[in-house]
Amino acid sequence: MLYVFLGLLVGAASLLIVTLLRRGNTPTEHADGLLIEQQGRTRARSERARFGTFGAHFALPTMVDLYRS
Predict the structure, then answer these.
(1) What is the pLDDT of residues 3-42, one digit of tens each?
(2) Residues 28/37, Cβ–Cβ less than 8 Å
(3) Of 9, 38, 46, 67, whose CA is between 20 and 30 Å from 28?
(4) What is the pTM of this model?
């Protein structure tokens, strides 16, 4: 019973590894995909700036902060 479980576990892990390696990390070549990637990078940059250390500790209080105190 234990060998069957371990065999299934190893089989599932190897299937995931093969799937991820076969998929690869190829760049997007068409315009729609490039625009989606550009929007994602822009959003990630703004989120990092907004929720960074300076933004979190030196920001003005919001209405939610007033209800917590």
Answers:
(1) 999 999 999 999 999 988 887 666 667 888 888 889 999 9
(2) yes
(3) 46
(4) 0.40
Q: What single string gives the DSSP state of each residue in 6-69?
A: HHHHHHHHHHHHHHHHHH--PPP-SHHHHHHHHHHHHHHHHHHHHTSHHHHHSSPP-HHHHHH-
- SS3 category, 4: helix
How many angstroms separate the CA atoms of 1 and 13, rounded?
19
DSSP string, 47-65: HHHHTSHHHHHSSPP-HHH
